[in-house]
Design brief:
The chain is α+β, with helices and mostly antiparallel strands and about 600 residues long. It has three domains: about 190 residues, 4-Layer Sandwich (Glutamine Phosphoribosylpyrophosphate, subunit 1, domain 1); about 230 residues, Rossmann fold (3-Layer(aba) Sandwich), CATH 3.40.50; about 70 residues, no CATH class. The protein is built from 23 helices and 17 strands. Strands 2-3-1-9-8-10 form a six-stranded antiparallel sheet. A hairpin with a 2-residue loop joins strand 8 and strand 9. Helix 6 crosses helix 17 and helix 12 crosses helix 13. The two termini are about 25 Å apart. The relative contact order is 0.12.
Length: about 600
């Protein structure tokens, strides 16, 4: 399902609840450009669900005997073999057992809302990583919940969150439970929330990484077990969505997914985006030809307009690079007219020991990860304009993010530093950045990754360091599932198969790759300046010629003036109109944040 909006209230707040629900439905039509597909209205819980843009989802099911009801956003799968589209069966299981027990059997990318009419309680269940975003806002005696943070802000009275906005402007991601708006908070991962009499009474985490064994699987057993779980995930996806299309690029993760789908005997097509000469495109077409799968190639469209950006903003709540997502939206809108689900390799990075190179030479040691180094190298790595955020003034971003990382990993004391790295990556990167993109795309049509299934993710997290280092686990996995796919070169020129004496000559390109990366890093460090794109015409300059963009980024009238000094904004924006400008990513974020704040203001003033 694309979106939902729920108002929970005590009996004595009925008039307020009715008004909130009315305003919410009005704003939903404005933001999502559609009427609700299903509505349920009882004194203590009012709910509306909305279909995706391709018409799927949005079903709200009710049990006639008890009056209990259930709605689900995203794509969920139960270990008993059923999944999205069979909400009536899941509802019966919850009624017969409990929400907590049902949650233990769920996998995928979802958020559920269950109303127990017998006890007049409402439960919300988030997926393992909280990737299907859901938000909450307290409004007097009532609580509003929605899959859209912008919708909750548009109920009125919301103010920009200074910390959330600064995180977004400086990193492109918002952390912890923050959003662009102070009053709107994101729900946590793997949690069952319980509401009674209009208030939150309990929040129970049903999954923690600290309960796993970081050395439960090793060697070939780990690879074969992961392969079995990915094949099972592919079969479950195919039972719910008959016509899948799989992303296929030049790396490991999408190739692993395609190998699992082939082993599962599932019919599918492949897709790739990029220029004809891009390595991802060349390899995708080569792999598709090798396995006999049709390949859909999407070239980047022409110029992005202000109207395209607004459509992207409505899907993403403004918490994203709108220029990038406008292209994603165009691609998925076209694919959704022919296929049932988009399958990608997200979360496959965990099986490859992603970012572990930062731990060298102590990879896998049972010691605390260096939170400041991790924050500086990965989460606060983008260059920030001194016009907006002068060095030494305001928030120390590295220290702030180091504290966030340390707090997230507090239960993993004594664990390998690689596990701490994985956990931070899952919660900070995959939940908030990848989850934002996936949650936006799910409003167009279903999208998910077999690697995010609980069974597959837990196995990857419980595989030894030595097996995951240097992508050994996924190399062995691809080789076991499909040797020809493993032998086909990656984007760097060497095969996806494990390194052996026999295959050593084919890995020569790896030496050149790492030498090139080292030279690039050294050059950047010695020059001490951010790289400047050599593109002939940056998209930023296209957009500066648009009158709507010019009006939005007029420093004298910008809403960001409340958070950033107007003179700083003016200096930044004046510089951004030059071709050579080192802070393009930050300019995109300024545009996204300002568009979102303005749209929110217009929604509230027009309600």
């Amino acid at each position: 399902m694309g979106n939902f909006f729920v108002v929970i209230s005590p009996d004595e707040a009925q008039s307020k609840s009715e008004e909130l629900f009315r305003v919410g439905l009005k704003q939903a039509r404005r933001i999502k450009s559609q009427a609700p597909k299903s509505i349920v209205d009882v004194t203590y819980a009012r709910a509306a669900s909305f279909a995706r843009r391709n018409g799927t989802g949005g079903k709200l099911v009710t049990d006639a005997a008890t009056g209990c009801w259930l709605l689900a956003a995203g794509s969920w799968f139960h270990t008993d073999g059923y999944g999205s589209g069979d909400e009536s069966r899941l509802l019966q299981r919850i009624i017969e057992t409990s929400v907590a027990r049902a949650a233990q059997g769920l996998e995928g990318f979802f958020v559920l809302v269950f109303c127990d009419a017998r006890s007049r309680e409402v439960f919300i269940v988030t997926d393992l990583m909280g990737s299907r975003h859901c938000f909450i806002r307290a409004m007097g005696d009532c609580i509003a919940v929605s899959t859209s943070s912008l919708l909750l802000a548009a109920l009125g009275g919301a103010k920009p969150d200074p910390l959330g906005c600064e995180e977004f402007l400086r990193t492109g991601v918002i952390y912890d439970d923050r959003t662009l708006f102070r009053e709107v908070k994101k729900l946590a991962p793997a949690t069952v929330y319980r509401f009674a009499e209009g208030r939150l009474t309990d929040a129970v985490c049903y999954w923690r990484m600290s309960d796993l064994d970081p050395a439960a699987f090793d060697g070939e057993r780990a690879a074969s077990s992961l392969g079995e779980r990915l094949i099972l995930a592919a079969q479950r996806i195919a039972r719910v969505y008959r016509r899948p299309v799989c992303d296929l690029t030049g790396g490991y993760d999408s190739r692993s997914v395609v190998a699992a789908f082939l082993s599962a005997g599932v019919e599918f097509e492949t897709t790739v985006a990029g220029r004809e000469a891009d390595s991802d495109v060349v390899i995708s077409k080569g792999l598709s030809s090798l396995i006999g799968a049709p390949n859909r190639h999407f070239e980047p469209d022409g110029e992005i307009s202000a109207a395209d950006l607004e459509q992207a903003m409505l899907l993403t709540d403004g918490e994203c690079d709108l220029i990038q997502y406008a292209r994603v939206q165009s691609l998925h809108s076209e694919l959704s007219s022919e296929f049932d689900v988009s399958v990608n390799g997200s979360y496959g990075e965990i099986a490859r020991g992603y970012w572990w190179e930062l731990l060298f030479p102590k990879i896998g040691k049972r010691e605390q990860v260096d939170c400041r180094r991790l924050a500086a190298k990965r989460y606060a790595a983008d260059p920030c304009s001194p016009d907006l955020f002068p060095p030494g003034a305001g928030l120390d971003l590295v220290e702030h993010l180091a504290i966030v990382i340390g707090r997230l990993n507090r239960r993993l004391g004594g664990w390998p530093n690689t596990a701490q790295m994985d956990h931070a990556y899952l919660i900070m990167r995959m939940q908030r950045w990848q989850g934002r993109i996936a949650s936006s795309t799910d409003q167009i049509w279903p999208c998910l990754s077999p690697f995010m299934f609980r069974s597959a993710l837990e196995l990857a997290l419980q595989t030894t360091v030595r097996t995951r280092k240097r992508s050994r686990l996924v190399r062995s996995l691809i080789t076991m599932l499909h040797p020809l796919l493993a032998a086909y070169p990656l984007e760097y020129g060497y095969p996806a198969a494990p390194l052996t004496l026999k295959s050593l000559p084919r890995f020569t390109p790896a030496a050149w790759r790492y030498a090139g990366k080292a030279w690039s890093r050294a050059n950047q460090r010695w020059l001490n300046r951010p790289a400047v794109s050599a593109a002939a015409e940056p998209e930023r300059l296209w957009l500066w010629s648009d009158e709507k963009v010019q009006a939005t980024l007029d420093p004298a009238n910008m809403l960001l003036n409340r958070l950033i000094d107007q003179s700083r904004l003016r200096a930044f924006l004046d510089s951004s109109q030059q071709r050579r400008f080192a802070y393009d990513q930050q300019w995109r974020r300024v545009l996204a944040a300002e568009m979102t704040l303005r749209f929110h203001k217009d929604c509230v003033s027009g309600s």
